[in-house]
Amino acid sequence: MKTLNNINKLSDEDLVEAIVKTKNTLLFEVLYDKYAGLVYNKCYGFAKDGDEAKDLTQDVFLKLFVKLGSFKGKSKFSTWLYAFTYNHCVNYVTRNTAKKFEKQSVDYTDIENLSEEEAEDESFLTMKVDKLKVALELISPEEKMILLLKYQDNLSIKEIVNALSIGESAVKMRIKRAKDKLVTVYKENNN
Asked: 76 φ, ψ to 5°?
């Protein structure tokens, strides 16, 4: 029990170092338990289906166990893991382009249970968010990834630089281009 407490006190970076040295699957389980929910949520953002997101999450962790040695500690482990997950999901979406345009199903029973006034308020409040989600699905996976890293995960430019191993000006330019593309697609689909 004492060793388990010591494991839980290790920083992520020290834990990764120990896993790389020993290939100890019990240590990897500690990392998995800590980050599985976050990774699942990132995958779900790309998959839009619970089972598919679970499969992607398992794929990420299997790939992660093999590639863990490539973590160099230039950024926080969590930042590196987010980028690792996004890259895996971008590759998945790119390979399965038909999935990219898959529409979310609407549960009409939920709509029927709302009063007319509540339904009007709900549709008004979510209208712009829904249109933004549609626009996000219409830009490239790479553009979506960089915007999500910056605005959903609130990573700094420096953290994105370290996570993606590209220059600061390249990160800034990719964010600007992705934002411009998103605005264009949003306007085209909402006129």
From this structure: -65, 150
Cβ-proximal residues to 173 (8 Å cutoff; 6+ apart), any chain: none
- Residues in Cβ contact with 164 at an 8 Å cutoff, skipping those fewer than 6 apart: 83, 171
Q: Over pLDDT 90: what percentage of the chain? A: 19
Instruction: Write out the CATH class of domain 1-102.
Output: mainly alpha
**Looking at the predicted structure, is the pLDDT value of residue 127 above 70?**
no
| Helices and strands (H, E) in the chain, number of each type | 11, 0
Residue-wise pLDDT tens digits, 106-126: 344 444 444 444 444 444 344
Q: What are phi and psi of 106, to 5 degrees?
A: -105, 130
Q: For the domain with range 110-191, which CATH number is right: 1.10.10.10, 3.10.450.60, 3.40.50.1470, 1.20.5.420? A: 1.10.10.10
Phi, psi for residue 147 in degrees, rounded to 5: -70, -40
User: Is residue 81 a contact partner of residue 64, using CB atoms and an 8 Å limit?
Assistant: yes
pLDDT digit string (tens) for 2-17? 344 567 678 899 999 9
> What count of residues does the chain have?
191
CB 157 within 8 A of CB 151: no
Q: Average pLDDT for residues 32-37, to the nearest whole number?
A: 93
27, 3 contact by CB (below 8 A): no
